[in-house]
């Protein structure tokens, strides 16, 4: 059995409804989870909501509800969205769950026992929107001349009694760790940012608050709640049953990958490893900070109120189309600008016209000319071998390497390259003409395409699970054949001689049109 694989997304703030960035990150994680499951690994995939903190407390006050009521309602929207987007998480985590309080307190105690927590007074700049403290030197001037954080959010001068974590003590251990684990932080640009930040010196971190009580209580000091990031990061452990010595901890920790956005890399690549070192818990293997999605070039955020409902996009264009588009269109580590025109045009050119049409043409020819009976393979030509070699290379080498590297756009580009090769082959071979001139050759051509299409469908199933499951099912490719090895084995001959009959093929991807309101 291959190694287990533990992947997490960030846990999302449920102070508003989910936006496209939440969908983007969770879909990417889902594709990886499905890809590794397909390869035979035992996968644990966790996502959820980050329900504590001042931001939640303030939002609830603004709406005249309790933070818990706000969290219950909003967390439900995230859960519903993930169900709609076909996210295959094993655990939807909520930080307001009791067991999470217990786990966060256990981590706290371990850090305290190690001498890394002390009580003092905090005076400094805090951004509620980022739930982050900033150094004076990091602040810039906003449009109205006010001080803003590096993320452009407002900061407030805050003074209160607070517990501190001895982050300064971990400067060198962190630098040593980055040096020894060069692919801990990815992409490279984020790693460089983090290294520069840590090399610049680390100040001890304020890790508790007394001005509100919506959070995890500091053990032995009930008037303090933990800084929201301390408990938020601990979710990755709680989900495995920490602090008890559970089977899940033994199997899945350290996490293989924390998949997060670029704005929260510092928390995952500096604070989190320092907390874990202090508590004597081993460190996660990789942190990947993906880029941000911009709506026609503009940042979408709950706080700015220009969000698109990703569920509505999925309803309008189809879940698989949205999943494909998001991973195909942008380079994963970089920002990308999306629009509904881009979704429609990508889907029409690549899914409807290229792959959909290839499958439809091939299966229809078999349905009509061979009465749905899979045609036998006669003498293979060099063209047939070249096509199968191209597809074989893409599904066995290029795509797995790109998925493993989180280079989704590259994986799908090589997939599209193979689809183009199949379309060029069908046009050159012209089975519709061979039908009259050389029936046996037509059979071989269609059989060759049948194998190529099934292989390409399986390779892209992590991205478009519903459509590919439907296609493979219609093609008689059973669940037992849906592994990278089995689909490359000789399954066609047994299927061809079985009593399987192809039913009239149904279109996979309809041609999309842009709604009137979106036409500019
Ligand atoms: O940061 N494009 O929660 P969050 C792509 N609770 N990704 C985006 C995005 C965009 N426009 N906007 C946000 C938090 N994200 C914390 C995390 S983890 C222990 C605690 C990403 O709801 C963002 O980078 O603000 C983050 O990874 C995730 O969405 C949740 O953001």
From TrEMBL:
GO terms for biological process: methionyl-tRNA aminoacylation. It is found in: Cytoplasm. This is Methionine--tRNA ligase. Residues 379-493 form the Methionyl-tRNA synthetase anticodon-binding domain. One of its GO terms (cellular component) is cytoplasm. Its EC number is 6.1.1.10. Belongs to the class-I aminoacyl-tRNA synthetase family. MetG type 2B subfamily. It comes from Aurantiacibacter arachoides. Is required not only for elongation of protein synthesis but also for the initiation of all mRNA translation through initiator tRNA(fMet) aminoacylation. Its main location: cytoplasm. Residues 6-363 form the Methionyl/Leucyl tRNA synthetase domain. Monomer. The gene is metG. It catalyses: tRNA(Met) + L-methionine + ATP = L-methionyl-tRNA(Met) + AMP + diphosphate. Coiled coil: none annotated. Keywords: Aminoacyl-tRNA synthetase, ATP-binding, Cytoplasm, Ligase, Nucleotide-binding, Protein biosynthesis. One of its GO terms (molecular function) is ATP binding. HAMAP family: Met_tRNA_synth_type2.
């Amino acid at each position: 059995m291959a190694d287990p694989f533990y992947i997490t997304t960030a846990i999302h703030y449920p102070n508003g409804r989910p936006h496209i960035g939440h969908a983007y990150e969770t879909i990417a994680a889902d594709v990886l989870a499905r890809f590794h499951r397909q390869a035979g690994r035992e996968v644990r995939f966790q996502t959820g909501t980050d329900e504590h903190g001042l931001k939640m407390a303030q939002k609830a006050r603004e709406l005249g509800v309790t933070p818990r009521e706000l969290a219950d309602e909003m967390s439900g929207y995230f859960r519903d969205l993930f169900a709609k987007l076909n996210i295959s998480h094993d655990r939807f985590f909520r930080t307001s769950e009791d067991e999470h309080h217990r786990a966060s307190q256990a981590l706290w105690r371990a850090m305290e026992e190690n001498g890394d927590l002390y009580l003092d007074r905090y005076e400094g700049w805090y951004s509620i929107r980022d739930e982050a403290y900033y150094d004076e030197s990091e602040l810039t001037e906003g449009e109205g001349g006010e001080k803003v954080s590096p993320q452009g959010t407002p900061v407030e001068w805050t003074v209160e009694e607070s517990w501190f974590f001895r982050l300064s003590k971990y400067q060198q251990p962190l630098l040593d760790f980055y040096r020894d684990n060069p692919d801990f932080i990815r992409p490279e640009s984020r790693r460089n940012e983090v290294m520069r930040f840590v090399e610049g010196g680390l100040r001890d971190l304020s890790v508790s608050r007394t001005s509100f009580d919506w959070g995890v209580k500091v053990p032995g000091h009930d008037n303090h709640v933990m800084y929201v990031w301390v408990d938020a990061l601990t979710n990755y452990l709680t989900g495995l049953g920490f602090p008890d010595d559970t089977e899940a901890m033994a199997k899945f920790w350290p996490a293989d990958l924390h998949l997060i956005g670029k704005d929260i890399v510092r928390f995952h690549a500096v604070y989190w490893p320092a907390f874990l070192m202090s508590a004597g818990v081993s460190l996660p293997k990789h942190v990947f900070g993906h880029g941000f999605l911009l709506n026609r070039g503009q940042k979408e955020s709950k706080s700015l109120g220009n969000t698109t409902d990703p569920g509505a996009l999925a309803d309008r264009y189809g879940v698989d189309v949205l999943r494909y588009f998001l991973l195909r269109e942008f380079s994963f580590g970089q920002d990308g600008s999306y629009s509904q025109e881009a979704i429609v045009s990508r889907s029409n050119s690549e899914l409807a016209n290229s792959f959909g049409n290839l499958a439809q043409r091939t299966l229809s020819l078999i349905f009509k000319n061979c009465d749905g009976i899979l045609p036998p393979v006669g003498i293979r030509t060099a063209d047939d071998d070249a096509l199968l070699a191209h597809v074989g290379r893409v599904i066995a080498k290029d795509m797995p390497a790109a998925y493993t590297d989180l280079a989704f756009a590259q994986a799908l580009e090589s997939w599209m390259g193979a689809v183009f090769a199949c379309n060029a082959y069908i046009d050159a071979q012209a089975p519709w003409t061979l039908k009259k001139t050389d029936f046996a050759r037509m059979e071989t051509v269609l059989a060759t395409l049948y194998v190529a299409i099934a292989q390409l469908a399986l390779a892209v199933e992590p991205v478009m699970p519903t459509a590919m499951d439907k296609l493979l099912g219609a093609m008689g490719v059973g669940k037992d054949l849906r592994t990278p090895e089995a689909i490359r084995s000789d399954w066609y001959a047994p299927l061809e001689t079985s009593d399987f009959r192809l039913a009239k093929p149904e279109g996979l991807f309809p041609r999309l049109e842009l709604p009137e309101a979106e036409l500019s």
